Amino acid sequence: TNLQRQSLYSESDVDRPKAEAAAERLRSVNSEIDIEAVSKDVHSATAREILREADIVLDGTDNLETRFLLNEAAIDLGIPFVYGGAIATYGMVFAIRSPDTACFRCFNPKAPPPGSLPTCETAGIFNAVSAQIGAIQTGEALRLLLGEAPSGDLLIIDGWRPEIQKIHVARRSDCPACALGEREYLGAKRAQVLVSLCGSDTISLDPVHRGAIDLEALARRLETLGSARRAGGVLVVDVEGRHITIFPDGRALIRGVNSEAEARTVYAKYVGI
User: Fold this and answer.
1) Is 200 domain-assigned?
2) Are strands 202-206 and 153-158 parallel, antiparallel or unpaired?
3) What is the pLDDT of residues 48-96, one digit of tens each?
4) Is residue 29 part of a domain?
5) pLDDT in tens, 97-109
6) Which pLDDT value is given to residue 44?
7) Do the strands 57-58 and 81-87 form a parallel or antiparallel pair, or are they unpaired?
8) Domain range spanning residue 164?
9) With contact defined as beta carbons under 8 Å apart, do 230 and 248 qualify?
10) What is the pLDDT of residues 215-266, one digit of tens each?
11) Tell me, what CATH number does 113's domain have?
């Protein structure tokens, strides 16, 4: 549903893990650079491990919970974090280098109540603004990597007019993350994680007791019920109107479900929990 605002993907990449498809495309542009594709879910148990050897983190996520998590991990590891987000015709970019600047939670003290903000499903995203956000994030990242001090300014982009506003964000002395050292998101006890993906009827399910799955064996079991095929490093299953992408570590993307409860039922029925 979002290929029209992507620059790394085409229709031939549908059903492939995004990280693998992006890496392949980037290697075709410059084969002399080393690219590592990591198809892992970012949560409290994996965030530090995934980011540990990074020099900088660029936010390409679509939900606040993951951003709070990345913010805490970046603070702990001393890694700059370049936040970027877009909705409708607007976007924001903020280059964070704690303790030199405010952190993400300084200007987002707590997650808003569910349903209180527009989503990309209800408001959409203007193609031009997502491209602008990515370009500005890249510029901010390069400046940080070259040793330039971050401005501490939150950039607010109106992609329709177009206009850019700058608002200086000061560190909060009572910020739970960078001032008080609380790790509400990194310290969360892992449970089964279900996330509704923005702009689609797809739910990402990450089981609590997950482990390596023999995708070939699972494909043989499921092919009698519907279509089961390998696509890169994942198994893609179409059964009873549901489109399921299963990763080797047990995670799954389930399309064609109306609720988290239905997603759990589908996973238990075809994969097992």
Assistant:
1) yes
2) unpaired
3) 999 999 999 999 987 788 899 999 999 999 999 999 999 999 999 999 9
4) no
5) 999 999 999 999 9
6) 87
7) parallel
8) 44-168
9) no
10) 888 888 888 888 899 988 899 999 888 999 999 888 899 999 888 778 877 8
11) 3.40.50.720
> In this structure, is residue 34 part of a structural domain?
no
The CATH number of whichever domain residue 211 belongs to comes to 3.30.310.10
Residue 156 β-bridge partners: 92, 165
DSSP assignments along 48-114, one per residue: HHHHTT-S-EE---S-HHHHHHHHHHHHHHT--EEEEEEEBTEEEEEEE-TTTS--GGGS--SPPPT
103 and 219 in one domain?
Answer: no
CA-nearest of 80, 68, 62 to 140 is: 80
Report how many domains make up the chain.
2
Query: In Å, what is the CA distance from 240 to each residue of 69, 97, 216, 222, 264?
Result: 35, 48, 21, 12, 15
In a domain, 248, yes or no: yes
> Structure tokens of 52?
């540990």
* Boundary-marking domain end, from 168, 185, 206: 168
Active site residues: 120
Structure-block tokens of residue 119: 């989503």
* pLDDT given for residue 193 in this prediction: 64
